[in-house]
Amino acid sequence: MTIEKLILREISLPFIHFFETSFCRVYEKQTLLVQVEGEGTTGWGECAAAEGPFYSPEDLYSARHVISRHIVPALFEAEIGKAEHFQSVVGFIRGHPMAKAAVEAALFDWESKRLELPLWEFLGGVRRTIPCGVSIGIQDTPQQLLAKIEEELDSGYRRIKLKIKPGWDVDILKRVRDRFPDVPLMVDANGAYGVEDFEHLAKLEEFRLLMIEQPLYHDDLIEHSRLQKELKTPVCLDESIRHLRDAQHAIELEACRVINIKVGRVGGVVEAKRIHDYCLQQGVPVWCGGMLETGVGRAFNVAISTLENFVLPGDVSASHRYFEKDTITPPVEVTPEGFIEVSTAPGIGYETDIEWVERVTVHKDSFTRE
Fold first, then answer.
1. pLDDT digits (tens, 9 = 90+) for 118-159
2. How far apart are CA 73 and CA 37, in angstroms?
3. Can 100 be counted among the known catalytic residues?
4. For 72-83, how does the pLDDT look when each residue is reduced to its tens digit (9 = 90+)?
């Protein structure tokens, strides 16, 4: 594959509604889009890094630096036969998985378009529809949260995930369960609790949760192992799983019973598939988490969710939940029954709305192979 040009854009899109986790509240989506061109074909990728180093050590500014100063020169100097070979080219760069994943995504979109294959089929997907869950952030009042849950259930979503933190957990879940006794429900703490909170976290068991996601430290496996042994509710790990080795160690330590795979967090499609395959062998279910992506990144989440072991509804919801106007056409839509029908068009299955992307671009760099 010959990539002749790479364009890196920082864009800014306002959210329809703010989104709050245990560590911050955001009102707009600032992200990087990667566009690669070569041999008459264009591929697109999106960087999952946020505007600050809150979810992970990366942010979009460090990602922009690493892509511009290190990844692009390596890409242009190398002879890559396939997108799956990209990781060997950038293996000399320690860390920065989201920067790597963004460029790798554009290469996979580019290659699957060249082969005239839908990306999901190119990756080995086995299903034409995927079940959808929804992630609901911390709200200003319990009443707002209950109204938000009802709205999402009316839209057909098949699982509700609630963000929690100390002070917004047990009492809130009691209200939710009183109002919605049978809804499939899980919670996500984004590492907001510590070992001193084991007894408190055990109180969540009464709410019949599908799982408790990342209750403890973002880089921990040992304490999660201790906690999982004390809980009947499955622990799901997110931030703690940075690559296949972490997944292997987590399963060996019995630190979790479910793993959330985010393509950006683990460094790209190739590593995500390796984790998926290992979890499948071990009988550990996986699901696809979201990073509030625009349509470009969301399309990759849809594609990866078609793999065999993505058996739980992921946070792959409709575009209109987040943006008045998305970066792709048509927008990602969810059926009234709570499924996304996977596109059969080549590549990610959606067209990037170039005119709109240019309008919301706040910074742009172009690199050409010499």
1. 999 999 999 999 999 999 999 999 999 999 999 999 999 989
2. 15
3. no
4. 999 999 988 999
Per-residue pLDDT reduced to its tens digit, 275-331: 999 999 999 999 999 998 999 999 999 999 999 999 999 998 888 888 989 999 999
Q: Which own/partner contact pairs does 141-148 have at CB distance under 8 Å and 24+ positions apart?
A: 142/171, 142/172, 142/175, 145/172, 145/175, 145/176, 146/175, 146/176, 146/179
Residue 93 contacts residue 71 (beta carbons within 8 Å) = yes
Q: What CATH superfamily is the domain 5-116+353-368?
A: Enolase-like, N-terminal domain (3.30.390.10)
pLDDT category at 23 given cuts 50, 70, 90 is: low
Instruction: Identify residue 262 by its one-letter amino acid code.
Output: K
**CATH superfamily, with its number, for domain 121-341:** Enolase-like C-terminal domain (3.20.20.120)
* CA 128 to chain centroid: 20
> For residue 222, what are the CA distances in angstroms to 215, 240, 254, 263?
13, 11, 9, 24
> Averaged over 245-260, what is the pLDDT?
98
262 is catalytic: yes
Look-up: residue for tokens 């671009």? 361
Q: Note the pLDDT of residue 22.
A: 65
Radius of gyration (C-alpha) of the chain in whole angstroms: 20
Q: Active-site residue among 262, 273, 325, 364?
A: 262
pTM: 0.95
Domain segments of the chain: what residues? Answer: 5-116+353-368, 121-341
Whether 198 contacts 220, CB under 8 Å:
no
Copy the structure tokens of residue 35.
């566009």
Candidates 29, 163, 165, 273; catalytic one = 163
